[in-house]
Amino acid sequence: AHLAPFLPGHPALGASTQGPVSAAPYGSAGVLPVTWAYVKLLGAHGMTQASKAAILNANYMAARLRDHYSVLFANEHGMCAHEFILDTRVFAKSADVHAIDVAKRLQDYGFHPPTMSWPVPNTIMVEPTESESKEEMDRFCDALIAIRNEIREIEDGAQPRDNNLLVNAPHTIANVSADSWSRPYSRERAAYPLPTLRDRKFWPSVSRVDDAYGDLNLICSCPPIENYE
């Protein structure tokens, strides 16, 4: 009880000595009714079908990628549950490529990177949902297979280990439209690694940032506090 005066407050809830920590007075409690409504709408049969679809999707993608990446934690039949883990640790030695490099390069292919380094460091977890179409899953697999071929170029010496398509990813419009270009690969390979990207291209807004530094250091990009006085 002696800590009650220090709990976050909110203007909508009346006077408080402390300010709010989020726009919603009750934080993320609203996610619980959303989950409940989803379960009620699907019902027992729908939940079963959704689970089956998610497991089928994960195993389909794992089967497509198994010839290019090692898949961790599969059972004796090579099957996984609703998610699977791609082991990218071997590329650290063979090409100086890490999971973060694969994740950043995926942005050039138009994908938000999936979960990285959990539960195994320097790996990528792929978790397709029951709602993903086969077309979208194939597009994601095609991107990862193409990235594996780019890693192979580094392993074979066709690209330098410290200046290549992966360690420089993602590539922004500002990067590829700059007057100078000194990288050992073409602008086209940087921005359009697959022909399909010319029809539908998502451009990353920023190039490579130091994620670990950002996680450990608070960086405020807002106007100075004097602007609010």
Detailed description of the structure:
With 229 residues, the chain is mostly helical. It is 38% helix and 6% strand. A four-stranded antiparallel β-sheet has the order 1-2-4-3, covered by helices on one side. Helix 1 crosses helix 4. The longest helix is centred in the first third of the chain and has 35 residues.
In short:
This protein is mainly alpha-helical.
List keywords for this structure.
globular, about 230 residues
- The run of helices and strands is HEEHHEEHHHH
Helical amount: 25-40%
Stretches where pLDDT falls below 50 for ≥5 residues?
A: none
Question: What is the strand arrangement across the widest sheet?
Answer: 1-2-4-3
3D shape: globular
| Count of extended strands | 4
Biggest pleated-sheet summary: 4 strands, antiparallel
Number of helices in the DSSP assignment: 7
- Our estimate of the beta-strand percent is 5-15%
Give the SSE layout.
Layout: H1 31-65, E1 70-72, E2 84-87, H2 90-95, H3 99-108, E3 115-116, E4 123-126, H4 134-155, H5 173-176, H6 187-191, H7 211-216
Antiparallel strand pairs: 1-2, 2-4, 3-4
Helix pairs in contact: 1-4
